[in-house]
Specification:
alpha+beta, 18 strands, Rossmann fold, 2 domains, single chain
Length: about 475
């Protein structure tokens, strides 16, 4: 028998991802940016556990989401599951802590969620959601604020082209009622078909609303079996366009019959258009889209999602809407609520694809390196002085201690400043400070060796220890200018 040690093959589960520093640094910056926007609108943080009781997530009757759950059993034998979103746990909190969470409540939350569905571009089985929700108000003004937040997030993180698409469950209800489609299963089938418009095109939507069709792989796709006149009515409705939000509402009103249901929906959309204008939300950023159908069986009013036209394969990077009935799962009364979720992983994947983020390998600003026989205590004293001044500092203690190796470490992790201490500097109470970033830029931009040496004189200076912090800050400030 061989005595050779057997090693476990290091690998990651399908649909899961490891986040290395070059991925995580920008991600955390974007998280901080979004948090600041949420808090600016008066939202406060809340957290819930990753695991929930199964009936909390599914309700007493269960839901379609059941097939996507990572289910398990607690040590006490209870049926539990990893949460699939952050909205249901928020609804539980509202019911469980009525004295501590008095409505109206505004909360935001960030954390991993899990869904056992098929992975795809920017789509993982564990992914991070970043939710903002407001509970306790039926006012469309609150829905407008959520849409305003979505737009502000995209503008602030530097996405040049995006669109928040907006629809309303009440509009769809009015349409289906006018078409005589009252069966719940048939309504959901229609919504699923309409939701595929951007993927399959209007001709295929017509076929799927009618007899059905054969897809590219040869598989049959069953149709809803609607009459041609009803198909025309639905197609005309989801094709409505206009030059402004108000004009689209006018066209919607012309398409729907004059019923109490349709008038209620139109009134709500007119009010939402006024709210968005009052909030200063650009017409080009937030658009009424009658074809938006995703999640409408879950929502009770306005529904919205954010797409990036130049990154279509990533789909929606934010989505949400009004869900007045969810808290009724836990209470005998409803608590109206609205909110949205940022799909952080999908958003970051889209930003990376569009080259809107540049990988950052480290957050370290200064590296303390040594030349000769320098006690570790002296290296740590210098590092401590810099850290006390708020400069993010690493002291080099690698096995390879040649100056070339130490500076190579700084280059590998893109550390912009090196503080060099040798035996002479230590004896004279001095340090050498090297602007590595500027030196690297000079090396790339100047081909002549003598010219480079002349230009590079200002990239390294020797100063007294008492001037060290000020000089490092000067180099860092120059870098940021």
């Amino acid at each position: 028998m061989s005595d050779q040690k057997q090693h476990v093959d290091p690998r990651t589960l399908k649909g899961f991802q490891d986040l290395l520093p070059e991925d995580l640094i920008h991600r955390k910056q974007i998280i901080r940016t979004i948090e600041e926007i949420f808090e600016k609108y008066g939202f406060v943080p809340l957290e819930t556990p990753a695991l929930e009781h199964l009936d909390v997530l599914l309700g007493t009757g269960g839901e379609e989401t059941n097939k996507d759950l990572f289910r398990m059993e607690s040590p006490e034998g209870e049926e539990i599951s990893l949460r699939f979103d952050l909205t249901v746990p928020f609804a539980r909190l509202l019911a469980q802590y009525p004295d501590k969470l008095k409505v109206p409540v505004r909360r935001y939350a960030i954390g991993p969620v899990w869904r056992a569905d098929k992975p795809g571009p920017g789509r993982f089985r564990q992914f991070t959601q970043f939710d903002v929700d407001a509970a306790g108000s039926t006012s469309v003004a609150v829905d407008g604020e959520i849409i305003s937040i979505m737009c502000e997030v995209m503008v602030t993180i530097g996405v040049p082209e995006f669109r928040v698409l907006i629809n309303n469950r009440k509009l769809i209800d009015a349409l289906l009622d006018s078409c005589g489609i009252h069966d719940i299963a048939r309504q959901k089938h229609v919504l699923r078909v309409v939701d595929k418009l951007q993927k399959v095109g209007m001709d295929n939507i017509r076929l799927e609303l009618g007899p059905g069709r054969i897809d590219k792989s040869g598989d049959p796709i069953p149709g809803v079996k609607l009459d041609e006149s009803v198909i025309d009515q639905i197609v005309n409705f989801i094709s409505i366009k206009g030059t402004s939000r108000s004009e689209i509402v006018d066209h919607l009103e012309q398409q729907l019959p004059d019923t109490e249901l349709s008038q209620d929906a139109i009134t709500e959309m007119r009010e939402l258009a006024e709210v968005l204008t009052a909030l200063g939300v650009d017409e080009g950023h937030a658009w009424f889209s009658p074809s938006l159908a995703r999640g409408l069986d879950y929502y009770t009013g306005p529904v919205f999602e954010t797409v990036i036209p130049k990154a279509p394969k990533f789909g929606s990077v934010m989505g949400g809407g009004r869900y007045n009935g969810l808290v009724g799962r836990f209470l005998d009364r409803e608590i109206p609520a609205t909110g949205m979720s940022v799909g952080l992983d999908r958003l970051m994947a889209a930003l990376k694809k569009l080259k809107l983020v540049t990988p950052v390998k480290s957050t370290v600003q200064a590296l303390v390196v040594t030349l000769g026989d320098i006690p570790a205590s002296e290296t740590l004293k210098i590092a401590s002085e810099l850290r006390e001044a708020g400069i993010r500092t690493e002291a080099y203690f690698g096995k390879k201690n040649r100056m070339k190796d130490q500076l190579s470490h700084a280059d590998k992790y893109e550390i912009p400043v090196a503080i060099i201490i040798g035996e002479d500097e230590l004896a004279n109470g001095q340090v050498a400070i090297k602007d590595l970033h500027t030196g690297k830029q000079l090396k790339e931009d100047i081909g002549d060796r003598d010219e480079y040496r002349k230009a590079g004189k200002n990239t390294q200076v020797t100063v007294a220890r008492s001037e060290m912090v000020a000089q490092v800050q000067t180099f860092l400030n120059d870098l940021n200018d």
